[in-house]
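Teaching note: in complex prediction, the entire set of molecules is handled at once rather than each chain in isolation. The prompt given to students was simply: 'Predict the structure of this complex.' The entities are:
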Amino acid sequence: MSDTEAHSVAYVRDTMMPQQPAPAGETGAIRWLRENLFSGWLNTVLTLLGIFAIYLFVSHFYGWFLHGVWEANSIKECRQIIAERWGPDASGACWAVIRERWHQFIFGFYPPELYWRPILAFALLFVAIGPLMFQFVPKKVAWFTPIYPFLAVWLLWGGSVWGPVLVLTGFVLGGVVFMAVARFGSIMAFSVGAIVTILYFLFAVGPLISLFHAMIPVGLESVASSKFGGFLLAITLGVGGIAMSLPAGVVLALGRQSDMLLIKTFSVIFIEFIRGVPLITLLFVASLLLNYFLPPGTNFDIILRVMILVTMFAAAYIAEVIRGGLAALPRGQYEAADALGLDYWKAQRLIILPQALKISIPGIVSTFIGMFKDTTLVVFVGLFDPLKGIPDFIRADFNWKGIYWEPFVFVGAIFFILNFAMSRYSMHLENRLQREHR
Amino acid sequence: MSEPHIERSVDRSHMQVSDEVAIQIENMNKWYGQFHVLRDIDLTVQRGERIVIAGPSGSGKSTLIRCINRLEEHQQGKIVVDGIELTNDLKNIDKIRREVGMVFQHFNLFPHLTILENLTLAPIWVRKTPKKEAIDTAMHFLEKVKIPEQADKYPGQLSGGQQQRVAIARSLCMKPRIMLFDEPTSALDPEMIKEVLDTMIELAEEGMTMLCVTHEMGFAQAVANRVIFMADGQIVEQNNPHDFFNNPKSDRTKQFLSQILGH
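The expected output is the structure of the full assembly:
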């Protein structure tokens, strides 16, 4: 009560009662339960049904997980142990197969004494993408990023050190030529740079590698593509595909919006064709048809072929996702960039793409996740993917004949962890950009 | 309608118009498909001139000034800006765009960049100005439009009037010789119109060549040395502001003036 009324009212309380906690039914878990799960008869029935469904599900599977056996040498031994411990009718997981064969799930048939190479390549991957992905990584580290692909290829496949070095030199050479000719116009510079690079790769790089290797033979033990398998294969294809499909998708999206008829037509046909054809068809093209088209004697690595096709496939989808982002930008952004005198490429790079890509993040990451999972389809062209190729191989061993669920659960769990990480990163990125722009 | 925004009388004594031609438009025509938007436009703008273009909506006034920096392409006739003829030659277009600043109705600031980055982007990437110098210039113009303290914010955090002043400063950072204003106050709340008009008046006092599409007739009276009235894609009448407002010649102009000054 206010002071003014104190004069006219007979009784005014001058001490306040101490605050009391709210009744138990109005706080915490009980209140939450009442409001969210039991707020009416319909909700109560649905809640009880839900609990029953969860019970059915868990009661069916928990025994299988609970009875899991890690120490055994064959599926027969697993079953014996489970029968002894939990009775003859009990079912149980035989995780022993994972314990015995985990290295094949991860590395395929890569020589075990060389496991350090893929592990090192995987660790360095984070050094390479760190400065692109996270702000707390010093930008100085970024010089490593363009070198990484060549280093990783060398670590994974081995061979003469001069291979990656001279291939990298080829790209640097193209760049230098581009810079030197740049003042005659960007189209001219791009063409000349590309021609010099292609000529270098066609005629110079092979002899140069032999020459340098003869003089200074430094290298790692070669590992053939047929030795790749499991997650080593999936991650190699996934990372390579992601890294190449994003720029390719950007170029295709811009191409589709181009005023130049030739570029536009090519982009539209490419995107529509690739999207209209199942990935498996493209993989068969990679494994069979390319051999007919390529000049005889060229040994074009199967993993590289598959990676190019997977990249093309993802790029077509990403192009459409980015086109959506481009379409969402107001015309005024293009006009303001034009009015300030920015040329097409500068306007795209500085104004349009940063905004369009930001809008497209969820779609792009979805495409990446889909593509990463689709790498398991390479089993159809005879590569050992972690989901079917490797388990089939393991089941061919008499000891593990008939083991199905355990590999699926294990491989599924790893895929989930990797994809969930990608998804969380994309949300982090969206939030960060949201905060920055507002 | 608009007089209240302009409180001070503008001293025009030093606002000299030179004999030099800034923009020359001869017999220019433009179509959108079948629709004839601009008909036989002839217009010569002297350096230092401040022109206000008025007219009912759909009369082609925005299209006209957007043709001057090639945001729109004309199909017939000739446009010469700063001695350079506008053709399909991209080099000429870019040259002209560097010398011609433009302010839009909806500001069109770049939302992913800070105010300072908005201002320094074109000088650094188009004029190749060293970064430090570009920042100094940007801060100079931000002070001029009276919002230096907002330099590190993002456009979305500013009011409409502030955003439009940033947009003006952004154009000025390119040191343009001609400024085009496309309804710069139409998207603003009434209380913010004045701050933008004040900035424009200041610019006029410094002798900037200005073409301004606007409905702010007070602004026209205060700073313009020529008012152009357009209707149906044609220039119907042009005159100095005094005669234009007090002694309009054509019926179309009279009708327009009575509509916007009437209440």
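Point out the following to students. Chain B is about 35% helix and 25% strand. Chain B has a mean pLDDT of 89.
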